[in-house]
């Protein structure tokens, strides 16, 4: 059965040794200024921006585009299966609409945010994609982190994968990478469709290869 879902672009920045943050999981500037400008455009051109609760707890991002009004900003989506999102998180400010997606057994609510419940232990991404499409979301930007990106690949929900490779080494065997989770038995094969130098780093753009 074909499901109608948004076009999904995964975007992240990794170091030249394949890490998206340090072992302390604290936010680290990996992108060049040129890449940050591209990320801003990508956010602007997306109907919604999605991150996992791990990213919110580590980075406390705004997930907005500076200069855009509440109505113009993309919908902010946080995957939070166990209801850990603090009321003080910046994604709950009044700069944009926010949707918190949690599991069916989580009864938590948040002031000023809409809550959607789907899935048992983890948010059911396929169901979420259908629901987002039904409410008019046609383009979705997934900004991380590693667990969430891995789930999108695992569920075959990625249309485009953009990874900026910053010219630095951070090391650390437990530092997060673009696709953490439990790993796949079979690789997700990609086609390299573009590459571009952006300041002191390289932007790689891939599309998953549909083997069927
Ligand atoms: N460099 C970058 O581009 C970039 C971007 C974003 C985050 N980060 C870094 O990534 C780290 C956070 O990543 P992370 O992997 O710990 O957390 P994450 O942001 O991927 O969130 C994972 C959590 O989301 C929840 N979740 C609910 N449903 C899920 C589902 N279907 N699939 C997966 N998770 C689901 C679970 O509680 C899970 O633990 C931080 O260190 C942050 O700084 C880097
Ligand atoms: N593209 C990108 N390059 C980086 O070097 C980096 N560290 C992130 N990290 C993503 C993470 O989620 C950040 O927290 C938000 O990019 C900050 O988002 P805000 O501007 O506060 O909305 N993303």
Automatic annotation (TrEMBL):
Pfam families assigned to the protein according to its UniProt record, in alphabetical order: RibD_C (PF01872)
Domain of life, source organism: Archaea
Name recorded for this polypeptide: 2,5-diamino-6-(ribosylamino)-4(3H)-pyrimidinone 5'-phosphate reductase
Keywords: NADP, Oxidoreductase, Riboflavin biosynthesis
Self-association and partners: Homodimer.
Occurrences of domain Bacterial bifunctional deaminase-reductase C-terminal (ranges): 6-204
Matching NCBIfam families: rib_reduct_arch, ribD_Cterm
Family label: Belongs to the HTP reductase family.
E.C. no: 1.1.1.302
Gene Ontology terms for molecular function: 5-amino-6-(5-phosphoribosylamino)uracil reductase activity; NADP binding
GO biological process: riboflavin biosynthetic process
